[in-house]
């Protein structure tokens, strides 16, 4: 499926199913939000990487305009719907301040892999324990998918974009699993180093070596 959508390029990855709260202050995007909300239309958020608008992004819908300030700025809630690939950027739209794009919605295989999902969830919980972060997922473990987990795995913006570009759930979960397998030993090593530094100068109870063994 191909169609034309207004776009709001941002330096953030929005995953399908994710709720994103935005503060709208630029005139062109205030106009975009007003148009989309009044016409019940969705808009696209392509990712800005290294000052360039990337080809992949997420279609989002406005679920609520929380507040309109006296100066016209807005606080809104949006929800990610589906991944798109930008075919053509339309920088100028007649009578509009914002830009648009012709986009294609690729087939996205979202079939679950319960074994991989469980491994990724376990890895993320271990990561959070190491860095002393408490995060509660809004779904049960059985309901979670890669999109629900991605922001909790410590990915960089570039890595989140790579994950968004993967169109099979098993590929996304494997990507997260491989990332965690690299990150966890490093963080565990840092924690061990921190403990050794903190112990320096303290009285320590150490067991001596037994030469008779």
TrEMBL record:
Gene3D superfamilies: LON domain-like. Residues 2-184 form the Lon N-terminal domain. SUPFAM superfamilies: PUA domain-like. It holds the Pfam family LON_substr_bdg. SMART domains: LON. InterPro entries: Lon_prtase_N, Lon_prtase_N_sf, PUA-like_sf. This is Lon N-terminal domain-containing protein.
